[in-house]
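Q: Here's a chain of 371 amino acids. Please give me its 3D structure as tokens.
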Amino acid sequence: MILFTLILIIVLAYLGLIVAFTIGLGKALPQALPRNGIGMPISVIVAFKDEALNLPNLLDALMNQSFPKEKFEVILVNDHSSDKSLSTVDHYCTLNSNFRLINLPENKTGKKGAIALGIDSANYPLVALTDADCVLGKKWLEYISSEARNGSVLMLGPVVMTPLDNLTQKFQALEYSSLMASAAGSCGIGRPIIASSANLAFRNDVLNVSMDILNPKVSSGDDMFLLHHAKRFQNGKISFMGSRDAIVETATVTSLQKAMVQRKRWASKSLYYKDIDTIVAGFVVLLFSLALVFLLIASIFNVENLYYFLVLMLIKSLVDFILLYKYLSFAEQKKLLKVFLPLQLVYPVYIVYSFFAGIFIKPLWKGRSIG
């Protein structure tokens, strides 16, 4: 009886969480591009390592921004690449006077070190971050600049995953969409819990971001630690850029194994979080997934538990579907709902496994152990 009371509390907590995110999502999406003219100049920072195949798409997108060329710079920080990334970047720097290459010194390595060096080298207080495997819309910088002019010190942006050629990629894209829906929804209620370095901008003259703030103890998670730092500023406005003009596309991985490595990498940094909103939300999702896994296993010994499992899955599916439908409609990726039910069935096990694997097995990031 005590056990089922505990499960009921967990279910109610999960329902409250998703309903709150759905309400917040309605406030965050969609937004029109602010019509207040060209705002603040921007320093765009891209840390890269062995990204020769992806960099041309990103750099072409940066070249074709609607934002005036004289109002932004692109700082490309090389983390000891061994492929043709350097020659690719050199070519684009030759074509664009506002592009420049910086190399991490031999005694420094890692994405966080590259980002910190880029921030120290930036000419403008408004800094935008994206990843080397991303593609940006033409008005990306225009939206960031206008949003900063409206008083935001940290701007979280929407990210969608492409291509969607196989089932693994569709599962990965749908899961990432659930994270983005939670990011927008939590920001909409004033309690942001998720940020992505694929689409992130901040006022460095307010936040004074340094390597210590990005947490050098952990190789990944620069985006999340930056979010938690910004939340400590009582008067700092954190906004979600809820416009299609602000969407950034990032690449899906091609195999289930790579997707699991990525998920474990995300889970591994959660032990270092100190933000109460992020901890509580993550804990509720984990406990709900554990409850579902427990009931599924328990149904082997008592078929009645299968009934409770199916009821909980139905409740979860209904509230999750509403949240995802709203976000996918905004992102123009409603076709991903075709894999919604299959993902719902495996997702609890996926969450539980990746959390504990991420804690006890140190995943690798481009050949380096995390943590």
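Q: Can you summarize the key feature?
A: The first strand starts at residue 42 and ends at 48.
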